[in-house]
Amino acid sequence: MFVTVLVDLIIYSLFNAQQYIHFPRYSMSVFIINVFLSLPTTMTDSPSIKLSVLTGKIQQALQQVFAEQTYWVVADITNHSYYQQKGYHYFDLVEKEEHAGGIVAKVSAVAWGNGAIRIKEFEIVTGQQFKNDIHVLVKVSVGYHQVHGLQITLLDIDTSFTVGLLEQQKQQTLLRLTTECADFIRKSGDRYITRNNQLPLPAVIQRLAVITSGNSAGYQDFRHTLEHNHFGYTFKIDNYFTVVQGETKAELVQQRLIDIYQRQVPYDAVVIIRGGGAQTDFLIFDTFILGRAVAKFPIPVITGIGHQKNETITDMMAHTATKTPTKAAELIIAHNRLFEEAVINMQQNIVIRSQQLFSGHFQALSYLNSAIINQSRTLLANHKEALHARNNVVLHTSKSILLNRHRELMTVSNAVLSKPRIMVSNRLNDLDNLIGRFRSFSRLFIQSKRGQVAHYDSLFKLMSPASILKRGFAIVYQDGHILPDASTLQPGSHIRVVLQDASLEATITEKNILHEPGTDI
Q1: Is the pTM for the entire model greater than 0.70?
Q2: What span, in angstroms and rounded, lies between the C-alpha atoms of 36 and 34?
Q3: Which intervals hold domain OB-fold nucleic acid binding (predicted)?
Q4: CATH number of 182-340
Q5: Where in the chain is the domain with CATH 3.40.50.2300?
Q6: Residue 245 clears pLDDT 80, i.e. is over it
Q7: Are 273 and 216 in contact (CB under 8 A)?
Q8: What is the DSSP track for 312-350?
Q9: For the residues 439-454, what does the mean pLDDT come to?
Q10: Which candidate, 330, 347, 321, places its Cα nearest to that of 196?
Q11: 3-class state of residue 92 by DSSP
């Protein structure tokens, strides 16, 4: 019974292996027939055999089918373990459904010796670490060990298959970007023209938004390079930390770009940096959503992704791409240095041009100074002679005018001496008239003001509290203040009522509203 169950398990495993490895069906049939012919049908037909005899027959049958045969197999790697001291790789080869993702076939495999060497070469050529969840084309052989059972041994791995597969996916993404985002992404020759790489960089880059991993060594190199630059430039850096590894994490990087846009800070540039790693570690930067977001972003994007071989889609869509975070920092410093050198050159040109202008104008001024001095001497001599002539004319003319004016003054003086008495008499009469009129007006004005004062005095006496109280009115106080109305009074409120001849203390027992406040009774 045990042997029958064991044979069933072997047949089931081999059928699964056939489905994955695709060896000829007739070979499998021969193997199954040989196994059945070599085994007793029931326990009563022949005596039992040892397990080693059974496993030996299985080993012999498999060797007859798979001896010196190898197969190129396309599969995914799972459950990978590597023992560095021995150089052994243990893993599972898995085939999955294209759309559902379910496992179609699975078999354990091992790689040592030449197989391990080929894996090492694969990692060097592709930059891709041999690990779980990678899609590979491997050359395998099939064997059987009496202790370890069915053995699938990796003999070789096709590096071009993995590289070509990644490149094919990349080209499909680029085609999708140029098709679906044609309004801000287009291809010109070997270069992609995007809205982002057409933005002008500021003349000086100082305020930066950095998207990276918080524990990234590349980020530390980036900051160290910026902060310890030889030119003493200072930078304002805002960190937007996120995960920058794993194709499925692209939405997190996109969200950080959205956060930068929504914050509305006037950044000079956005820097996306990541340290080195395997090629598949950079697949996040070959995604459609991240390429689209970078191409459309309204602030220049500088990439410093630590890849040395291939250019990612994010690099193609960005304003400026560098190979490492340190190179990105050096680019920013060089950009600012270029501006500084332009300013220094401009300063030197201004100094040289100024010296040339000063020299030319100094010579012109010297010439003008000499000309002015000579002309001034000539003009002064000419005007001195003219002034001397005019001085003589003025002296003669002034003597004649003074003599005439003296005669006129003598005539006027005689007339003035006779007129003052008449003028003084007239002014005295005018003053007497003014004094009389002022006295009459003053008496009338004072009488008028006395009548007004008497009127106001009578009015004040009538309006005084004493007069009002005599007419039967009373004054009501609450807390020392006169009440203009009963709005603040409530039953139980304490008041003081002042009459003509007495002051009364009272408590409100009832309040009746006679009319609405602000209306006539």
Answers
A1: no
A2: 5
A3: 50-157
A4: 3.40.50.2300
A5: 182-340
A6: no
A7: yes
A8: PHHHHHSSEEESSHHHHHHHHHHHHHHHHHHHHHHHHHH
A9: 87
A10: 321
A11: strand
